[in-house]
Amino acid sequence: MGKKSDGKLDSLSVWALAAGGMVGGGIYTVLGVVIAVSAQWTWLSFVLTGLIAIPSAYSYVFLTNKFHEEGGAFVFLEKVNDKKMAGNLSWLLILGYVLTISVYAYAFGHYLSFAFHGDPLLMRLLAAGIIILLILLNLAGVGKLTKVEILIVSVNLLVLLALGVYGLTQWNSTQLVAGIEPRPIWSSLFGGAAIFMAYEGFQLLTYEYDKIKNPEKKFMPVLLSAVIFVVFLYVIVSVGATMIGGATSMISFKEIALSISAESAFGKTGLIIMTIAAGFATAAAINSTLFSTANLSKRIASQSELPSWFDHTNKNDVPDRSIILLGVLAGILAIIGSLSSLVEAASLAFLFTFGIVNWIAYRELNKKKWIPLLGIIIGCLVGGALIFRLIISKPIALGGILAIVLLIILGRPYVLKQKEKTKQKSKNEEK
């Protein structure tokens, strides 16, 4: 698998990168979080959020093929003449990606430090260290290693599938609620709301549209099959891993839930394999998200929707300032944040973004309108559940998120206006 000789990404490469973009950080970071909320209904939480991700993938591909341009939600809004909304959403989307990178770095630090007896200082050093390393690799122009990413994804998917299937062969449904109170079925809605970011990642392929071979014909079936496969994988792993590890242990060690399960199943060998898989998977997810977000920032800046400071590139044609700023912000959040808060904040950002994309697709489609409509309806239910959950359990965190959104809406025009004034002043001085 990899790139063809013409430099275009073939179908297997696109499939692997899409699946890896979701799984690379998703299941490693969110499994313990969702078990704490939904217990025996964890699998249903992944199904519900999958029913948002699948229509969203359809909408992303339909719109990308329609406009024949990479850039995702930002470009879609520009094409339907909503430039103001495009600017606001692009800033929110960048924030979502920064939060996502921080979650991946958080997971990387925890999985590796746990293998060395879980020292908190080591965890922070590892989280910061992987961010610094990947910033440097990107600045050197070797950030996007497609063949390496595909190899990591392939091994990663096999390890997770093996763990999940083995767990199912040890069927013991009492493990799903071992040591905790069973949850009502509606808790699956709140569980799904808390971990929607587990499906973030497939849309990064829309930023690579120009590099995909024959996208008009193959992009849709390839991306949809990748998302559907990930939904099934999450269901298998969520049930199988909990069957092995038990609900209490998975919640108590939610940051490294899969290591707990692998060690329970296969002892030290299982722990070592899962640590290696988690380390490479989360590092690859950090790298691809950082690379794509920095290039997205550059593109947005070139359209005058971000300060031109973000448009700067180094001698390797890498948006260096964006790479450094985004990486540093994500690293700080990974060190000081809590897993649940970071995951929920990122989930809220992507629920909103995917909702916008589904709405645009609904407007632009002549047939099959029910597909984006399904994503909108379930997305509204899950988004409402997440906001309600944050109001009850984390009102300060929700207030902070809303304050940032308000700052974006009110502050973005001011920042861009000041940028335009500075630009005009420079022109007058040159005259």
From TrEMBL:
Main location group: membrane
Subcellular location: Cell membrane
InterPro entries assigned to the protein according to its UniProt record, in alphabetical order: AA/rel_permease1, APC_superfamily
Cited PANTHER family: AMINO ACID TRANSPORTER-RELATED, INNER MEMBRANE TRANSPORT PROTEIN YBAT
Keywords (A to Z) from UniProt: Cell membrane, Membrane, Transmembrane, Transmembrane helix
Membrane topology reported for the UniProt record: Multi-pass membrane protein
Organism: Mesonia maritima
Highest taxon of source: Bacteria
A Pfam family per the record: AA_permease_2
Designated name of the protein: Amino acid permease
Signal peptide (from-to): none
Transmembrane segments: 12-37, 43-63, 89-109, 121-143, 150-169, 189-207, 219-251, 271-291, 322-339, 345-361, 373-392, 398-415
